[in-house]
Automatic annotation (TrEMBL):
<comment type="subunit">
    <text>Component of the Sec protein translocase complex. Heterotrimer consisting of SecY, SecE and SecG subunits. The heterotrimers can form oligomers, although 1 heterotrimer is thought to be able to translocate proteins. Interacts with the ribosome. Interacts with SecDF, and other proteins may be involved. Interacts with SecA.</text>
</comment>
<keyword id="KW-0472">Membrane</keyword>
<protein>
    <recommendedName>
        <fullName>Protein translocase subunit SecY</fullName>
    </recommendedName>
</protein>
<feature type="transmembrane region" description="Helical">
    <location>
        <begin position="205"/>
        <end position="225"/>
    </location>
</feature>
<keyword id="KW-1003">Cell membrane</keyword>
<keyword id="KW-0812">Transmembrane</keyword>
<keyword id="KW-0653">Protein transport</keyword>
<feature type="transmembrane region" description="Helical">
    <location>
        <begin position="21"/>
        <end position="39"/>
    </location>
</feature>
<feature type="transmembrane region" description="Helical">
    <location>
        <begin position="303"/>
        <end position="325"/>
    </location>
</feature>
<dbReference type="InterPro" id="IPR026593">
    <property type="entry name" value="SecY"/>
</dbReference>
<dbReference type="InterPro" id="IPR030659">
    <property type="entry name" value="SecY_CS"/>
</dbReference>
<comment type="similarity">
    <text>Belongs to the SecY/SEC61-alpha family.</text>
</comment>
<dbReference type="InterPro" id="IPR023201">
    <property type="entry name" value="SecY_dom_sf"/>
</dbReference>
<keyword id="KW-0813">Transport</keyword>
<feature type="transmembrane region" description="Helical">
    <location>
        <begin position="113"/>
        <end position="132"/>
    </location>
</feature>
<feature type="transmembrane region" description="Helical">
    <location>
        <begin position="71"/>
        <end position="93"/>
    </location>
</feature>
<feature type="transmembrane region" description="Helical">
    <location>
        <begin position="172"/>
        <end position="193"/>
    </location>
</feature>
Length: 438
């Protein structure tokens, strides 16, 4: 406890770090305040927005703003969608690949294209959101007037959230877009834990404590999955140093993440899991089998749902790892820098070796990622409330763990730069090597 208090004093004794923390808290407060401001022309008390499947994921990321019909109902998800689209284009089209290789100027061009694309994505998503989730009974103005005004307000709200994320990155602790998503997720935790405590009643104190202990070990497992790397030794050619011509060589490591895809496979898989139940619901009245399929895949605790969910995560993990980690490019850059893997020839042999290692570590990483994704369903089967079970795994847990690790790494870098002790006695805090698309 004494060390913790001393660390807090050290953090706030650094003026720049103190200013960045206060700026971050201010921007977060603005973001949370906006999530309670309802769209003009709607009565929030008459709303009954369904939050199942993908809609539930959007509601979690927006901190409940989606179900409240807030001006921040779409949050920064349109920006995330646009960023993913631009990332895929940089891997498919030479024009975008060229911009990516232009350095800072190319990055600014890509950011500008992403912002413009975000506006179009937000308009499309806002029209879908307004027409499918806001009933006429909840409106106090005409539908045409409400839709016209709300599209403008939702687009402005998304752009403002994007601006807040950029300000957190520039003026705050950093990683602003991921920070806003994490805050939206964490904002639901106090109500979820109170709901879990009430469901246990007076005689379920022991079970409640065991649930918290289980959550602790799940979080530690997620931390291990996020930080786990396979280090490939790299030897650089010897260079002449000093007037006497001493030759020295440098030995480094190429860290390959066991979970290089991050949370993206779970997001992609969840986006597709609503399709079986939606398609089957159209034929439910004509076929008992279709009705059974619709019922089964609407229940996220069914074994059929989780098997398909896990398979999709495995597929998307390999797919996203393949497009985000390029062994040929890594081998070429290593060769140009005079580096080589001991016992492996530079060039094609090096890229083949990296591909082989990547394949061997991606499979267990994908299995663990799928296990984390279905943990909420397992927790629900053991009697944990659905709201609290969401914190036992899935996208929510991985995003929270990743952002917290990144934030601690930023804080520790300031402490070490000012010659203070780090946050951990056991070693440096390691964040994620890849953040959310932003």
């Amino acid at each position: 406890m004494k060390r913790f208090i001393e660390t807090v004093k050290n953090i706030f004794s650094i003026e720049e770090l103190r200013t960045r923390i206060l700026n971050t808290l201010l921007f977060i407060a603005i973001f949370r305040l906006g999530s309670y401001v309802a769209l003009p022309g709607v009565d929030p008390s008459r709303l009954d927005v369904a939050t199942d499947g993908l809609l539930g994921l959007l509601d979690v990321f927006s901190g409940g703003a989606f179900s409240k019909a807030s001006i921040f109902a779409l949050g920064i998800m349109p920006y995330i969608s646009a960023s993913i689209a631009i990332q895929l284009l940089t891997m498919a089209l030479p024009y975008f690949q060229k911009m990516q290789k232009e350095g800072e100027s190319g990055r600014k061009k890509l950011n500008q294209i992403t912002r413009v694309l975000t506006i179009f994505v937000t308009v499309a998503q806002s029209l879908t959101y307004l027409n499918t989730t806001i009933p006429n009974e909840a409106l106090i103005v005409s539908r045409i007037q409400f839709t016209t005004i709300s599209v403008i307000v939702l687009t402005a709200g998304t752009m403002f959230c994007m601006w807040l994320g950029e300000r957190i990155t520039d003026k705050g602790i950093g990683n602003g877009i991921s920070m806003l998503i994490m805050i939206g997720i964490v904002s639901r935790f106090p109500a979820a834990i109170l709901q879990e405590a009430d469901s246990r009643g007076g005689g379920g104190v022991l079970l409640f404590v065991l649930t918290l202990v289980a959550l602790y070990f799940v979080v530690m497992g997620a931390v291990a999955l996020t930080r786990a790397v396979r280090k490939i030794p790299i030897q650089y050619a010897k260079q002449v140093v000093g007037t006497r011509g001493a030759a020295v060589g440098q030995r480094q490591y190429l860290p390959l993440k066991i979970n290089a895809a991050g949370v993206m496979p779970i997001i992609f898989a969840q986006a597709l899991m609503f399709i079986p139940s939606t398609v089957a619901s159209f034929f439910a009245e004509k076929s008992d089998l279709a009705g059974s399929i619709a019922s089964t895949f609407s229940n996220y605790t069914s074994w059929q749902y989780n098997v398909l969910f896990g398979v999709l995560i495995l597929v998307f993990t390999f797919f996203y790892t393949a497009i985000s980690v390029n062994p040929v490019q890594i081998a070429d850059e290593m060769k140009r820098g005079g580096g080589f893997i001991p016992g492996v020839k530079p060039g094609k042999d090096t890229s083949d070796y990296i591909s082989s290692v990547l394949d061997h570590i991606t499979f267990p990483g994908a299995i663990l990622l799928a296990a984390v994704a279905i943990l909420p369903a397992i927790a629900s089967l053991f009697g944990v409330t659905s709201a609290f079970a969401q914190f036992f795994g899935g996208t929510s847990l991985l995003i929270m763990v990743g952002v917290v690790l990144d934030t601690l790494q930023q804080v520790e870098s300031y402490l070490l730069m000012r010659r203070y002790e780090g946050l951990m006695k056991s070693g440096r805090v390691q964040g994620r090597s890849t953040a959310l698309p932003a």
